Amino acid sequence: MSDPIKRVKGFADLFEPESTAFTFLENTARRVFGLYGYTELRTPILERTELFARGIGDETDVVQKEMYTFPDRGGRSLTMRPEATAGVMRSFIEANLANSQPVSKFFTYGPMFRYEQPQKGRLRQFHQLNCECLGPVEPGADAEIITMLMHFLDELGIEDLCVEINSLGDRNCRPAYRQKLLDWARQLPADQLCPDCRRRMNTNPLRLLDCKIPACQSLTQDAPVMIDNICPECREHFDAVCALLDKNGVPWKLNPRMVRGLDYYMRTTFEVVSNKIGSQGAVTGGGRYDGLIRDLGGPDVPGIGFASGMERLAMLLPEVKLQRPDFYIAVVEDMAMNCAFELSRNLRRAGFKGEMSFSAKKMKHQMKVAARLNARKCLILGSLEVENQMVQIKDMDSGEQIAAPLADIVNFFE
RNA sequence: GCGGACGUAGCUCAGUUGGCAGAGCACCAGAUUGUGGCUCUGGGGGCCGUGGGUUCAAAUCCCACCGUUCGCCCCA
Q1: pLDDT at A1 over 50
Q2: Are residues A297 and A342 in the same domain?
Q3: Which end of chain A, N or C, is less packed with Cβ atoms under 10 Å?
Q4: Interatomic CA distance for residues A305 and A308, integer angstroms
């Protein structure tokens, strides 16, 4: 006997009830997003590596350290998608959709891959629900997509979630702010900052703002924030988004220290956070990415979108109740087998869910099976029943038992 | 990539100063040939994560690796 093969680290097998939870998430998403005009787009898992390097940003951790990248047999460098947006943009550009319709709204769902250390709410193969709204530059698009996201989370029955929003400015005002923050940070006592923050000064100064270490937080308490330094155009856009959210009854919170890890975000950014699932609390992240399509070689079309982590949503879902079987057919004598097959077929054709015994077993055994399956009713079939063309129906909850004619058994089910 | 915790039966876990590998649940069989989900009795099941070291003797102590898990970083 050879050793059994084990699954790859960070890749999960999903059994019930978790698989049902995922199906529920997917179906709810398709339905709710459909109400807002989103259509489903399925893009490939493999893309050319170049797409992500250009789309997500060469210097980001995702691209630098976390991608599953390998050469195919023709020598091309391919990458298993670490996120969905870049692939959707590539697809949008390739199909020339900007020429035929002013607005494109896409919903995608599927596995993503990042080479990270697995932990709670984080796998190497994980799943995201994505929405992308391409075309509109108006704040109404921002407000609509956030409203839709909250509608979706509402229908899932998840409570105690909060949308945090911020504006990251645009290509005009962000570089100036970045420099302003850097100048401000240079006067801090460097030895009191954590090593990560000292490193961030060089790599990504904006990240100074969302360090979780209390000492750093108090040091940077009075740091200038983007939202106070955005240009008038960005300010107007942001204020309009906030006003529309209020009008739509979406509760939101300004988080001036929220930063995004992917380079393409600008202006409106948002996150949905839960404090119930440990450190990986961000359930959804999104924002506007007006320059992205052009950067990828397409037309200059603005866009906004978000990604929701299925594994994290699944952890917050109210307990999934699996559908209970309606019946279990307990065969207690061999000669009743044919009858049992016919009976199960008729019940299933009538829409009832259940199972049957594939061989005759003792009553004691059959009752244990019926109890384990949690079947509503146990149908007992033996020689007596076959002779009389009857079946005993035992209600497993009340213990009551009645005899019913085999011919119209369906009428005894509700 | 970095840090902590944990790896013993299908599952949940005991296992004392190093001394015969254990319990509960689950499964199978019998008591009990069609009124049974209870009870009782019996049974199958283990490279004690892997490899090395210490020892008369290692599930137990030491080292390394692998895996799981919770954090950091980063992200959904």
Answers
A1: no
A2: no
A3: N
A4: 10
